[in-house]
């Protein structure tokens, strides 16, 4: 059983010089005229022998920050195995997390989040002390302005301003484990597109290297059920994406639902996306094929029918303000060599899916 634990703590920071205050969990925040940095530590999931932790840093001062650092004590018997959205080091029992090159700038009231996976019990990983540091403009991030993450570092395309928030949306092909997301994140950042933030309510699975794991890939979900439930609106309001990557409909095809019913559900989701953000860019996949011998007798034909109808549907929904862009994930995808069960992608399939999304995203990020 997975349980969620949360503990909010507040650190103090100087507006001009990095300074920290260590606070006792459950006690009153340390009083300081320069209070202006808060950090909230939560355990997103806990399976007894391991856990996923998240920390949100918020600039509560009256001055924009150019960098941040969070420190806490790791309880005995715990280790951290990987992290995302922060540069993290462990010295003895002291954990230090600093901003990356793309999430150091915090306007007044702005927040940045990072996460990590560890061994040990999540409940007992909650720190008894935590310190939060901010850098004011001109102060540089930890390590000096010439180190990675400093304000003088040249960024990749789209670096100025807020990060582009990208929501991967779908079923288990997107979320369980959905390692195409990890490959896409790595390929984008390797190409210099560092000012991006993958968003969603789900923590991703391990894919062999750190990446921005958040997504809305829900195993077993039908797009028609999601459209009826209205749950997408809740997810959107929590994350406010700029771009959605939608690979959805596999379970609907497997359930023998008509193509038009699936397209109607797509339209409902598009309306919900635009209600959240009228300028939403929506990338919709022609979904990967299914092997009828290993899924359902009509699955292969159902996927072909859906994919054939998607371009005309997208053209009818697309607007200049909120384009709907078709991404062909079907052509060149072989269920014999690119899946492990006739439905879900293996490593080869993940690489193809990631490459197709990458080619569609780059023109939007330039």
TrEMBL record:
Biased composition (Gly residues): 137-159
Keywords recorded for this protein, A-Z: Carbohydrate metabolism, Glycosidase, Hydrolase, Polysaccharide degradation, Signal
Entries under InterPro entries matching the protein: CBD2, CBM2/CBM3_carb-bd_dom_sf, CBM2_carb-bd_dom_sf, CBM2_CS, Ester_Hydrolysis_Enzymes, SGNH_hydro, SGNH_hydro_sf
Region (Disordered): 135-162
GO molecular function, one term: polysaccharide binding
Keyword Acetylation tagged: no
Residue ranges occupied by any CBM2 domain in the UniProt entry: 30-140
Biological process terms in GO annotation: polysaccharide catabolic process
Keyword Cell membrane: no
One Pfam family in the UniProt entry: Lipase_GDSL_2
First and last residue of the signal peptide: 1-33
Protein name: Cellulose-binding family II protein
Protein species of origin: Thermobifida fusca TM51
